[in-house]
Amino acid sequence: MISNYNSKITALILSIRPETTPLGMLTVYIGGLVAGASFNSFTILLAVIVTFFITAGSMTFNDAYDWEIDVINHPNRPIPKGILTPKQMLQFTAVLFTIGLVITFFINLLCTFIYLFSIGFLAVYELFTKKYGIMGNITVAFVSSIAFTFGGAAVGNPLVTLPLTILGFLIVFGREIVMDIRDADGDKQMRLTLPHQIGVRNASLISCILLLLAIAVSPLPYILNIVSLWYIYFIIPVDIITILTVIWFLRDHKNAAISAHLIRGALALGLIAFIIGIL
Question: For position 4, what pLDDT does the model report?
């Protein structure tokens, strides 16, 4: 009995993707700094904590609705392995979302609105748009990139983060299509993703165009005097990594899984470039 309980707790912890949640938290923190918050701002700390709960909740929400696809694409996740049920995962999701919502009450009304709006978008994604190609990709990209805006909203200055939000949107949008290509075999059982609609080759071209657009607009934060010249020094290697990943991916679509990881790594390095540019 104790062993079964421990396995469920471990499964719940792993289901929030501990390796992924810090990226969203860092994004909000950077949005707050760009908007004028101090490095030790308590308000930004609350916004970062909120981001942990909504990011974790989005992961468990996805697991609860995608478990049939995960049997093929991700058989080691808790539901396909029989450790947890979809109902238990949804209950855990409700707890995570509720805790995050309560914390927004201690920030400001705008953050509460963005939080509820984002959860609504996530619900629309899981229940409706995920099944219909590019609309699902747009939904995920929007919810991910709005984290910059959430950080700015926490200190009452969301508009200044707009260039960062656009950049984040393009990167996540491109990466989401790459992941659809990675999961194409399993998705064809349940979803009509972009690779199934227009073919893997065309979907890969669109993803690469989005990533190259992100590279093209990456100097924008410096041009708009949001960050210092140090940002440029650090973003150039990030752009080079992204370009090389695009070339490698176009040569062989079987590299989609590794390419998706490389893009996420480039995104993490890009966030570090923002921090250095703000110092």
Answer: 63
Identify the CATH number of the domain defined by range 2-278: 1.10.600.10
Six token digits for residue 185: 């075999």
For the record, the structure tokens of 40 come out as: 């030790």
Q: Which of 23, 2, 37 is closest to 153 using CA atoms?
A: 37
Closest residue by Cα to residue 186 from 64, 78, 82, 68: 68
**C-alpha to C-alpha distance for 230 and 277, rounded to whole angstroms:** 5
Using alpha carbons, select from 39, 18, 279, 272 the residue that is nearest to residue 151: 39
CA 69 to chain centroid, in Å, comes to 20
Q: What would the pLDDT profile of 107-159 be if each residue is shown by its tens digit?
A: 999 999 999 999 998 888 777 776 667 787 888 888 889 999 999 999 999 99
- Predicted local distance difference test score (pLDDT) of residue 188: 61
Closest to 272 measured CA to CA, from 241, 245, 246, 233: 233
CA–CA distance, 83 with 63 (Å, rounded to integer): 13
- The Cβ of residue 237 has, within 10 Å, a number of other Cβ atoms equal to 13
- Cα distances (angstroms) measured from residue 245 to each of 129, 148, 170, 195, 271: 28, 25, 15, 19, 18
What pLDDT does residue 48 have?
96
